[in-house]
Each structure stands twice: as structure tokens, then as C-alpha cells.
Amino acid sequence: MYSIDKSNKRSLSSYTYEVKRHQGKKSYPHVLNFYSISPTEEITIDEFESFAFDRMQVLKALEGAILRNKEEEEIKKHIENVSNTWLPLHSNESDKGYSLQEERRKDHISHFILRLVYSRTENLRAWFLKYECALFKLRFSRENKDEKLSFLKDENITWKNLSKAERESMANELRWSSNFDEETFFEIDFEKVPDLVARRAVYLKKGKAYVPMTDLLSLVMYEFRQRLSKALDLASKSFITSRNERIMPMLNEIIKQYDGRTQTSNYSVGDDPTSDSVHQLVEHFPLCMQHLYQNLRENLHLKHFARIQFNLFLKGIGLTVDEALAFWKKSFSNIDDAKFQKDYAYNIRHNYGAEGKRQDYKPLNCMSIITKQRPNSGQIHGCPFREFSQSNLRSKLVQMGVRNEEHIREILSLTEREHYQVACTKYFEITKGLLDDNDENIIETIEHPNEYLKASISLKKNRMKMNNKDDK
Amino acid sequence: MDIDEPQVNKPQRIENEGDSVELLRVFYQRLFPFKIYCYWLNYGIDVGKLFQNREFNFVNNNDAYIRYLSFDTIEEFKNEVLRVYPKKIDIGAVFSAKPKEKKSLKLSALKPVEKELLFDIDMNDYDEFRTCCSGAVICEKCWQLITVAIKILDAALREDFGFKHLLWVYSGRRGVHCWVCDERARNLSDDERKSIASYLGVIKGGAQKNKKVYLPKHHQLHPSLSRAFNIIEEYFEQVILRDQEVLKDEQEWSKVLDCIPDIDVRQRLNDNWRKNPCRHSIQKWDDLINALGNQKKGDIVKKEIMFQYLYPRLDEAVSTKMIHLLKSPFCVHPSTGQVCVPIIPEECENFNPMRVPTIYSLYNEIDDYNKNNVNKDRERNLHDVPKTIY
Q1: Greatest CA separation found in chain B?
Q2: What DSSP string runs through A304-320?
Q3: What is the pLDDT of residues A43-96, one digit of tens each?
């Protein structure tokens, strides 16, 4: 595959990395690493490939776990297992049996190889940043307090400590949540702790956040993310200038091999659906789309985000932009043509990439529908399993034909525990009668409304085939 | 100058197309504050990138959107406005290059780099319980909802985030915008904006969730919320119970009762009020407080209801996306003809949206003034702005 002799040792630094050496006997005193210093030693091509592959397994596993909306504890356990297989990394206090330095060296080098691989486009950089941060977060929270502090000290990361007088002067406000008497507080610009600000979990005064020791993780994550984000930008620039014939094909290969999965699947249902034939598919719509559809029929209108959610769903079914325009025009029967063209047509065409920056928007998956653009008062979009109150969801379920009290309670309890997609899957199984049918497999968790639709259609087709066979 | 209401008929809507172009012409030629407007957006007198790379968006008289406009000088901006007479001007972000050169630039060369932090409060979001009016209609009663929202948000932005340069503007129909112009605010990334919007967002949930506020059960209110609560407490009785009478009849009070998790309490109050539907909202609110009891749990529910009715309802998309376009201050609302005038937050209680000048009233005021003063030579050179009464 490559024109490089595999036994030939190559130094990474001669391609892209700045030369700096780890000094002293203990190169890696801590299990944690901010990856501010690039590795400079020579490694074999074999190592290059296998290190990259192994780290990728861990990041991909992390992506899968997060996308599946697993509990934090569950993710921790899962990633611990995956890491032990591919990229073990033990703490200082663990058994002496592990070769800690060797593990950390692999962690260090593999990070830098993938950093290079993933520095090429904005999307790849964003992906890598997200899951490296998630990985670091897991590892950081695993360590004990002393280890954390000594690591931060060595990395030269410090924040302004609140003096006793300052502490007393805002004692009332600081006391609102934390154990004031035992806490050390740091004073820091609010921009540096976005997650604490977003959760209203920190006291703010005149642009400063007062962060208790217990929320150290937020501060550390901000530093980690900032540094890695900058480093990735730098890497992307040097990547362009230092195109290297030897290393390029290898990097290409790594991306190709492990990134195929992120390609979007095709949800189109075939038969070139039209603005009219859509109505025949309604029985296959997931609850979110049923809800939007019913609202559209009743009010002859949908608001902005509901329109986007539904329009992209139609696009996923396979409606062309013209058919989609026709569908909306007919559905908004109260709105005259001039107003429709002025206020709505642009956005519909925009979703199809026919306007503006011509981005071809993908149908929204469950994660986006659940987490992004939550509905405000008066808005009806989003995931019904999340956005409906228990009583409204109950009546909706009954309306949709879920009559068994046990089934209803099961779905309600899943939504209460925030397992919205599992609830949706259960809804599918119940309404399609999969639960009583032993010979049909229970489906995988629904992750996309168009996937729901497709599953529903193919289930119907299969059953029809079966019936036809039986008839004959 | 005459301070009384002028004796002219003031239509709320502009009657026909021909009129509106003429009115806009007078408005832009004689009244629009080009100079201070541009100095503001330029954040200084010497025109630089902040102004030149700023995206503008005009809506012309055929209702067509003209996007990605930008101007190299104040003159150029003025000339274009006086050529198009836009029905509406939107302001976007400052980009890394000139938006008007978009077509010749690579997509990656045109990135948003800064933008005021924006907040949009719209009466629309209060429609689920507003009893005095609905839709685009507002009155002095429901305007109080916006007044309370301004007070709470203004305090939070200043005291929590330390912002100082807040421009509050009437949106021209049924809401207000806030432009936070501090340099620190302008430089916030989208993610940082998101965290601020989330910090300030207490009311969560769409049309399918009646209870929209959940406060923490196990510790005290966050200092920002307890400051907000003090403001809410001050206005709740007058605005919610007296003006809106949210407990007046069953259709209204059931929305309040939906916020109480305890079914027994809910049922008891409902039965009681059905028997005595004529009790005033204030008395019914006392019933509710008594029914909730004076334990901590009941206190939280009470606060949740009060927050749900009076805490600001923010349009998140406006605040979180740097590239979001927002109607410019000082322009005219296309459907009411009202000018988007600034509001002084310290005096927001005295602001009356019904008295905001329309381009029609301004036109007449200038006209009257000129007629009445036709013989006074020394007034000849008076600028047009002092001839109006607002």
C-alpha cells in the first residue's frame, strides 16, 4: 500500500513536529496529559498505524456511548473496558504490574497522530475536539484530588484564589449552594466556565464567576479545550504547508478506514413520493412527525422550527424541492400565494440548499430534535417524549391507539427517566404489535425519525409478503 | 413647542403604497439620525472595519430582501438608504471581510467575528395567559409584562455579567430588543452566548407543557433568581392578579393549577373556585397560598408559578447566533409605521408604546410646524427633528 519500507524507522518530528525532548528519567509523571509537548522520538510505521487504530477504537466507542445517551456511570464503565483493551492507562497508585511509562507513551503519541489526521477539515477537527475532551474528562474525574492538583501544578495552571476579606464580603451570595466554610473559591472570567454559567451553577458578579473547588473540573476542561482547539488550528495550517508524500497516503487511509460509518444513510423510501402521496405515508410517521402533521392539518400552519423539522423529514423521505414546495403550498391553504412566496418559500428552498449558502441540510436525527432548539411557549416542535407533560403524553398515546395501561405506564416511566429514544422505540413496538409477535425481532433503538418511517414501511411490506405466501 | 396630542388623525397602519414611500422619504431625509447611528456601529468616529464589514439587510418597497449589504463610508450608507428608502433595515454581524464582496470571496473568508449580544422579548410569548389582548395587539396593561422583563434582564446583565452599555429599543409593534454593546459582549463566541442565554432562561417548554418553571428543591435560589424574584414580587399582584386576572374563570385558573404538582391541592382549589367563581383573583391567590401551606415545598411551587408568569421570556435564537439579523433601532416597523425608539431602562415604567411616534404623525408634525412658523425667518434653518413633539 505504501511505498515506505516498513522496517525503516522514521521520526515524526521531521515531518510536522517541533523538536522538544522529554527530559529526565520519568518522562510521564502523571497519567493525565495536556498534550502541550509533541513527541519527538522515532517510531516504526507499524507502531504509527497501530497506535492510531487503537486510540480511534476508544474515541469511537465514546462517540457511540454518548450518542446513545447513556448514563454517565454507564459510559465510564464502558470506556474503561474499551480502554483496557485498546489503550490501557493506569493511575500512579495502581499495581506495579503495569508498564505505566509505556502506556503513557502510547497515549501521548497516538493523540498526536490522530491530531494530525483530524486537523484537515473543520468537521473533523470539531469531532476530534469533542471526543478528546470527553475522554480527558473521564480520565480526570477518575484521579484523586492530590493527583489532580499535582498535575495542574506541574502544568502551571493556576487561578486567582479569593482572599479571606473578599470571601467575607460576598459570603451571603457564595453560600447559596455550596458548603461555604470548607470551600476554596477561585475568581475567574465567566467566559471560562460556560457549562457552570449555562447551568446557573455558579455565582456571578460583574462579569466574574466565583467557582468553588468542587467545580474544578469545569475550569480544567475549559483549559484543555482551549489549548487543543488552538493546537488543532495550528496543525491544520502546518498540515497544508508540509504536505508529505510519505505520510499523506497513510493519513488518508486511517480516515477512510475508520470514518466510513459517519456517512449519512439514505432514508428515501423509493417510488418518488409526491406532495400528494405523502399523506398515504402518515401511518408510518413517528410520533413527533404525526404531531406536526396533525397540527399542520388543523391549523393550516406550522411555526418556523416545526417547519424546518418537518420539511427536512419530507426531504429525507425523498420529496424533491418542488414537491416539498407544492406540499407546503397546499397545506398552508389559508395563505395567499404572494405571502407564501415571500415568507415561506425561501426557507423551504433553503433547507434544500437551493438558497443562501447552499448548504444541503440533513434530515434532523433524534439527538438534534431532542437537544437542539427546544420549543418555547406556543411552539410545538421537538420530541414529544421529551416536550409533552405526562398527562398530555398519556392522552396523545391513547389517541394514537395505545390503550393498554401497562404499556402507557411503561412509556411514561421511560420518558421520566429521560430515555426518550427508548420510549419512542417502545412506542414503535407497541403500535406495530411487535411485542405479541414472537417471530419478529425487536428493533434497535430509534435514532432518526426517517429510520422509524423506513422500519415501519418495510415491516408492513414484509407482513404483506408473508400474508400473500400464506394465501397461496 | 406644543406638548399636547396633535389634532391630526393618526392611523396605526399606513394606508397605501404611494403614501408609504413618500413618508419614508421624509423620514429618512429629514429625521433619521445617520451620524450618531453610524458612529455607534463604528464604535468610534474614524470609519473602520467595524462599520465597513458589518452586514446590513434592507427590505425594499416591493418587499424584497436585499441581503449582504455593507458600506465603506457613512456617505455610502446614507446614499443607499436615500435611494432605496428601505421599509426595514436589519443589522447583522461584523464579518472578517466586507459582506458586499461575498460573491468574490471564498466561503471561509467571510466569517462572523463580532456582534452585539442581543435579547428579544416578544409579547407573542405571553399569549398563553395574556387576557387583555392577543396576537399583535397590545395595551398599557400587558405592556407591564414587558416592563417587568426589562427590569429583570437589565439588572442581570449589569450586575451578574458586568455589562454597562445596554441599548433598549422598542421593536415597533409588541416587544423590545436589547443591544448589549460592551466590547466584551461583542466578542462572545456563539457557545458563550448560548451559556448566557441558558443562564437567563428559566421558562422552558413548549405548548405541550403547562408547567414551565422548575426551581431547585434542595438549595436556595441562585442569587440572580432571588434578585429577579424581588422584582417579580413587587409587580405580581398588580400585573398578574389585578390587570391580567389570571384566576378569573376556569379556563384561566386551570393554567395556574396545572403548575401545582400535588393533585389533591389542585382538585381542592378547583372545587372551591367552581363554587365561588366570583371571588377576585387576589382572593383566589390567597386561597392558593393557603392550600400550598407554609412548608418549603409549597413555597417553591408558589415561586415557580410567579416566575412562570413574570420572568422574562427570551427568544433564544436571537441571543445565541452571531449571524442572526435583527431589526435596526431607529427604523420604522413596516406594519405599524412606528419608529423603533430607544427605551431608557431606569424609566421603562413610563414608556408607553401607544404614544410612540409613527412616520405619519412625524410627517404631520413637521408639516404643521412649517405652516405655523412660515413667517419666522430665524426658524428657517431649524433642523427637522426639533419640529416634532416626541
Answers
A1: 78
A2: HHHHHHHHHHHHHHT--
A3: 888 888 889 889 988 998 888 787 766 778 888 999 999 998 889 888 887 767
Q: Cα separation of B370 and B151, whole Å?
A: 40
Tell me the C-alpha distance between B267 and A178, whole Å. Answer: 37
Q: Give B234-254 pLDDT, tens digit per residue.
A: 999 999 999 999 999 999 999
CATH topology of domain B17-118+316-387: DNA primase, PRIM domain (3.90.920)
Residues A257 and A194 in one domain: no
Which residue of B63, B87, B222 to mutate against A (max A Cβ within 10 Å)? Answer: B222
pTM of the model: 0.75
Residue A229, pLDDT > 50, answer: yes
Side by side, which strands form the sheet with B342-343?
B117-122, B175-180, B166-170, B342-343
Is A383 among the annotated ligand-binding positions? yes
Chain A residue numbers with beta carbons less than 8 Å from the beta carbon of B188 are 191
Contacting residues of A for B313, CB less than 8 Å apart? 376-377
* A184 φψ region: left (φ > 0), alpha (ψ -120 to 50), beta (else): beta
Numbered ranges of CATH 3.90.920.10 in chain B: 17-118+316-387
pLDDT tens per residue across span B133-167: 888 889 999 999 999 999 999 999 999 999 999 99
Residue A424 marked in a binding site: yes
ipTM (interface predicted TM): 0.88
pLDDT in tens, B121-136: 999 889 988 998 888 8
Q: Shortest CB distance from A173 goes to which of B204, B208, B223?
A: B223
Range of the domain at A398: 277-471
> Which residue of chain B comes nearest to A178, CA vs CA?
B219
8 Å CB contact between B182 and B163 = yes
